[in-house]
Design brief:
Mean pLDDT: 84
CATH class of the largest domain: Mainly Alpha
CATH superfamily of the largest domain: MetI-like
Number of strands: 0
Number of domains: 2
Radius of gyration: 24 Å
Number of helices: 13
Strand content: under 5%
Order of helices and strands: HHHHHHHHHHHHH
Shape: globular
CATH architecture of the largest domain: Orthogonal Bundle
Largest sheet: none
Low-confidence stretches: 237-246, 283-287
CATH topology of the largest domain: MetI-like fold
Structural class: mainly alpha
Length: 287
C-alpha cells in the first residue's frame, strides 16, 4: 500500500511540475522576447532566455516620454476607482445582508438581473455622453464602474457568514447602521475586501475601451500602449530600413508592451494573495 502511495505521489509530482512549466513558460517567453534583439527573434520565438540582449524594444515604447501622463492617469483612476468601488460595494452588501431590510429580496433580484441583461453599447454611450455629459471627463473612469454586482454578491455572502450577535451587540451599545458597517463589519471583512479590491484594481488598470469611446483626451496607460502597439504593427521602426541593428518588429514591441502593462499587477498581487485566497473561500459555506 505504501509503495502504491509513493508511486501515486511521484505521478502527482510529475503532473504538478508539468503544470508549473506550462504556466510559467508563456510569461518567461514574453519576457525574453521583450529583451531580445528583434531581428533575432524573427528566426525563432521559442526561448526563455534572451539570445541577444537589448533594450531597444523598451526604448521604442518609452520614447519621447509619451506614456508618463497616461501612467499617472491610470494610477490615479486605479487608486480612486478601487477605493470608491470598495466603499460602495461594501455599503450595498451590508444593506442587503440586513434581514430587517424589507426590500432586500426585490433589490437583490434587480441587481442579479443586471448581470444577465444589459442595455447595450449605444444606450450606454448616450447615457454617458449626452445625459451625464462625462465625455473627456475623468469621472467617466469612476462613475460607470462604481459597483460590480458580482463583487457585491461576494461581500454580501461573506457578511452573511459573520456572527449576527456582533451587530446586535453593537446596536445595543448605541451604534447606528453606519457605525456598525464601519467599525464592526468592515474590519471583519478584510479578506473579501482585499479580494474585491484586487478585482477593481485589475479592472481599472487594464481598462482601455472607456478611453477609446469616451475620453481620448485623457488617455490611460493601457490606451497609450494600445496606440504604440498599433503603430508598430502598421509600420516598422523608422530605423529598420537603414540600420538593421536597431530594427524593432511589431512582435517585440507587443511583448514589451505586455510586460509594461503586467508588471504593476504582478508586483501588487503577492501582498494580497493570502487575503485573496481567504476571501474566496471564507464565507462561501455558512455554519
Amino acid at each position: 500500500m505504501n509503495k502504491k502511495a509513493k508511486k501515486f505521489d511521484y505521478v502527482l509530482a510529475v503532473i504538478f511540475v508539468f503544470l508549473v512549466i506550462i504556466t510559467i513558460y508563456p510569461f518567461l517567453n514574453v519576457l525574453a522576447i521583450s529583451f531580445n534583439d528583434s531581428t533575432d527573434t524573427i528566426k525563432n520565438v521559442n526561448f526563455i532566455i534572451p539570445r541577444k540582449f537589448t533594450l531597444s524594444n523598451y526604448k521604442y515604447v518609452f520614447k519621447d516620454g509619451g506614456i508618463a501622463m497616461p501612467a499617472v492617469i491610470s494610477v490615479t483612476r486605479t487608486i480612486i476607482g478601487t477605493i470608491v468601488g470598495i466603499v460602495c460595494t461594501s455599503m450595498v452588501a451590508y444593506t442587503l445582508s440586513r434581514r430587517d431590510f424589507v426590500l432586500r429580496k426585490p433589490f437583490q433580484l434587480l441587481f442579479v438581473v443586471t448581470m444577465y441583461v444589459g442595455g447595450g453599447m449605444i444606450p450606454e454611450y448616450l447615457l454617458i455622453i449626452r445625459t451625464l455629459k462625462l465625455g473627456n471627463n475623468f469621472m467617466v473612469y469612476i462613475l460607470p464602474g462604481l459597483m460590480w454586482v458580482y463583487n457585491m454578491i461576494l461581500v454580501r455572502s461573506y457578511i452573511d457568514g459573520l456572527p449576527m450577535a456582533l451587530q446586535e451587540a453593537a446596536k445595543l451599545d448605541g451604534a447606528n447602521d453606519f457605525q456598525i458597517w464601519y467599525k464592526v463589519v468592515m474590519p471583519l471583512c478584510k479578506p473579501v475586501i482585499a479580494t474585491v479590491g484586487l478585482y477593481y484594481a485589475v479592472g481599472q488598470w487594464n481598462s482601455f475601451m472607456d478611453t477609446y469611446l469616451y475620453a481620448k483626451k485623457l488617455p490611460t496607460l493601457q490606451y497609450k500602449l494600445y496606440e504604440i502597439m498599433n503603430q508598430a504593427t502598421m509600420k516598422m521602426d523608422v530605423h529598420a530600413g537603414t540600420n538593421v541593428q536597431t530594427a524593432v518588429t511589431p512582435m517585440s514591441v507587443r511583448m514589451a508592451v505586455t510586460i509594461v502593462a503586467t508588471v504593476p499587477i504582478v508586483i501588487v498581487y503577492p501582498f494580497l494573495q493570502k487575503y485573496f485566497i481567504g476571501g474566496m473561500t471564507l464565507g462561501s459555506v455558512k455554519d
